[in-house]
Specification:
This protein is α/β, with parallel strands linked by helices. Among the domains are: 1-89, Arc Repressor Mutant, subunit A, CATH 1.10.10; 167-260, 3-Layer(aba) Sandwich (D-Maltodextrin-Binding Protein, domain 2). Helices cover 40% and strands 24% of the residues. It has helices at residues 5-17, 20-27, 31-45, 62-83, 104-118, 131-140, 185-188, 201-211, 225-233, 282-298, and strands at residues 50-53, 57-60, 84-85, 88-89, 93-100, 122-129, 145-149, 157-165, 168-172, 192-196, 217-222, 239-241, 256-260, 268-275. A 5-stranded mixed β-sheet has the order 6-5-7-14-8. A 3-stranded antiparallel β-sheet has the order 12-9-13. The N and C termini lie far apart (71 Å).
Length: 308
Amino acid sequence: MEISLRQLRYFIAVAEHGSAIRAAEAINISQPSISTAIRDLEIILDQPLFHRRYAKGLSMTPFGRRKLVEARRIVSDASVFETTTEGETTLSGTVAFGYFTTLGPSHIPALLRHAENQLPFLNINMAECDMEDIQQRLRDGRMEIALTYDVGMTEQITREVLAEFVPYAVLPENHPLAKQKSVSLHDLSKEPFILIDSPMSREFLLFPFWQHGLEPNICHMVSSVDMVRGMVANGHGVSLLITRPTLERSHDGRALISLPLRESVTGQRLVAAWSGDHPLGQTAQAYLECMRSFFKVEKQRFSMPVKT
């Protein structure tokens, strides 16, 4: 038997989705066809590409992770070969892309629109993840490139800074502190405080207080930026955030006020991240360049305005 591009594409789909069933749904191919292709590929290579775990899907073997990198490169090169005419290339193929969950509403839809304009024939296979899951997927090859904060990354993960954000205060519209041009952490620490209770985010949002020897008066712990904004807008407390939506409204339409902090605090870097063990193929490199150009253009939109 000879290895085909079809087998390699099915292999990549299964690796990215973690099971033949989910891969079949994603690429609209029957599950038996995918399973047969993977089994034939393993026979040709004379080694298993996946560990089969009953009721838990598939996980790649070390050999499978190495072959995934090679398979992506071959499929990417084949796509370039198929679409190159008279010296001009129309880049096509698929990029396995992930993003940290709180970045989704503010950044991902606009980034995808930018990518569609720049790379119209490129398919983006997206996954919304927490930071730990992003690192795991990058390390084992299921994800090629991610948009995330530069928090807790291991040395095996390569990062490129795309933007930097500084924590800012959010307050109810009618709060006395909202009348100021900036707000002090000392004043915020005396108010009921609403905290995002998720790994990494929790510690980073508490750190500005710790930097200045303060402890916030935590009254509620929630799991999302949208919930923080809704609680603040309805007068349940104040908070700090990093991700900044464009509109100063909560989901229920109530207004809130965003203010810069008076004290100097550590910023948070927004990065493109990929595994140093898995070199980016042509399609992923093109998508990385698209991310660079997007944040260069959009940088001003995400900056913290000063209240006048």
